[in-house]
Amino acid sequence: MRCDVRVLRSITGLLVAGMIFAAAPARAFPDRPINMIVPWGVGGGGDRVGRIIAGLMSAKLGVSVPVINVTGAASQVGLNKVLGEPADGYNVIEITSDSYILFAATNPKFKLSDFTALAVVDQQPSGFFVREDSPLKTWADVLQAAKSRTVTVAGSGFGTQSDVTVNYFDKAQGLKFVSVPFDDPGLRWNSLLGGHTDLLYAQFGDLTSFLTGKQLRPILAFAENRVPDYPAIPTVKEFNYHINITHFRAFAVKQGTDASQYDALVSAMNTASQSPDYKKMLADEAAVPDSYVAGHAAQAYVQKWVADLQALIAKSSEKSGG
Questions:
Q1: pTM of structure
Q2: Res 128 pLDDT > 90
Q3: How far apart are CA 82 and CA 22, in angstroms?
Q4: pLDDT tens column, 243-253
Q5: pLDDT at residue 1 is higher than 60
Q6: How far is CA 160 from CA 32, 142, 151, 179, 247, in A?
């Protein structure tokens, strides 16, 4: 009987332990830090926005949200890092239009279905910029120069938004434009400041200190209407250039993230978007006031943006004879 009693006690102990485990509540999400992956260098617009959003999310979620800059290959290293991690909501990545443009390629390395957008947090105009003392005083000067020599354009990398724009002017408009890629935004800006490139493709909000400090000035705006702070600068629409690609920054998680975790992150983004710090960020970045798009609407936004871009690239190829 002793043997039977021992067995009975063991079985009872296992049953009690199982009941306790089953009754224990599931751990709330999040219960540890969430990594904010920024696939661009420190000091640029993407890094700046990532740090602001990370701080605002941390306050809502109750855990730290450290920013980790994972640079290289025009953001591809950062994208690959997130795809190599579990889809558990603990890795949020900032994906800008410079990254989503990679998804629009003919044989893309990344697919839209690899990531699910949490929110689009800013939308802003881009432009071509020159040094304040550049001999290229107007866009007409640039057009004249590009007919007889190569005009170099500092941008964020081959295949990105700046590169597609340069290719448009080179192929569809027959101008001698060539991209000079820099992953590091500081090197990109310094290439123009140092006289190593003729033009810089960037967003107005990224260059505020250089513009107010009279080191750089815009020469063409990629916008439907003239930028309020620079009413003398013409837009691509005025020249009938079909290359007005909206620059935006979004945050996303790996596809397959649990719906409850996704909703918690979107909720944190929504709270962040109502804060004074977020609204100040929009003003500082020269972004449009109604930039914010959240949740599944954000995923629909990026899907349409990629589809529109694919159509634009195809049209440009037709104009250049394939």
A1: 0.79
A2: yes
A3: 32
A4: 988 899 999 99
A5: no
A6: 34, 22, 18, 10, 11
For 129-245, the fitting CATH number among 3.40.50.1000, 3.40.640.10, 3.40.80.10, 3.40.190.10 is 3.40.190.10
Strand partners, 68: 37
Which residues share a beta bridge with 200? 129, 154
The first and second tokens of residue 162, run together, are: 């700046």
d(CA 175, CA 36): 40
